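User: Predict the structure for this protein chain, please.
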Amino acid sequence: MSESFVVPLESNPDVLNKFMKSIGVPDKYQLFDVYGLEEDTLAFLNKPVLAFILLFPCTENYENHRKQQDEEMKANPPKTPENLFYMKQYLHNACGTVALFHSILNNLDRITLEDGPLKSFYEKAKDLSPEERGKLLETDEGIISIHQKIAQEGQTEAPPANSDVLFHYVALTKVGDELFELDGGKCGAVSHGSTSDETFLTDAAIVCKKFMSRDEKELRFSFMAIAAAEN
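Assistant: Here is the predicted structure, written as C-alpha cells:
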C-alpha cells in the first residue's frame, strides 16, 4: 500500500473551526487560542472547556520519550474506559484532524454531531479497533477532501502534502474521571491520572508543562482549547 498524505492543518482557530463546522460539529463548541498555562490566564477561557490541543515540535527528546513510553505500555498494557475513543494515525500530516477527532468524539455527551462526514465516520468507526479506525480515515474521501480544501486557507503558505512536517498535535481530554493524552502516533491512550470538571484545566496545563520541560530550550509550543462558544 502506498503512503497517504494530506496537507497539514494550520494551528489557527479560525481555520480549524471552519473545518469542524464543515464536518458536522455544531457552533456551540469552538476552538480558542490559549495564551498561557497559569491559572489567572486559564480563567479567561469560556467554560466548559472540553479538551486541550497541544502543538509542539517533534524533537529528538520527544521521539525518545515516545519510544520509551510505547515500550512501557506494550510491556504493561494500561486499562482504559470502554467508552474512550482512540485511533491510530496512518494518514501523514493528519495529526491535527486526529487530535480534533479525539477531542470531539470523547465528548459526545456534550457535543451533538450534526449529520455530516464526522457523524458518518463515527458510526462506522465506533466498534472498530484503533488501527482499523486509522485505516478508515485513510479511505474517507469526504473528510480528506474537506481537510485538503481548508488546509489551503491558513495565513501561512501550506507546505506540499508529501513534505515532512516537524510539528505534531495531541489532544488532552477527560474521559470518566481520568485525564487522557490522545496521540495517534503512540501505541495507545496515555492516562495522566484522575481529574474532574473543576480541575481539568489545571491538570491539562500540568501535562503541557511536562512536554515543555522535556525541551526547555524550545519555544515553539502552542495551545488551543475546545470550549463553549458563549459562557
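The two ends are 47 Å apart (CA to CA).
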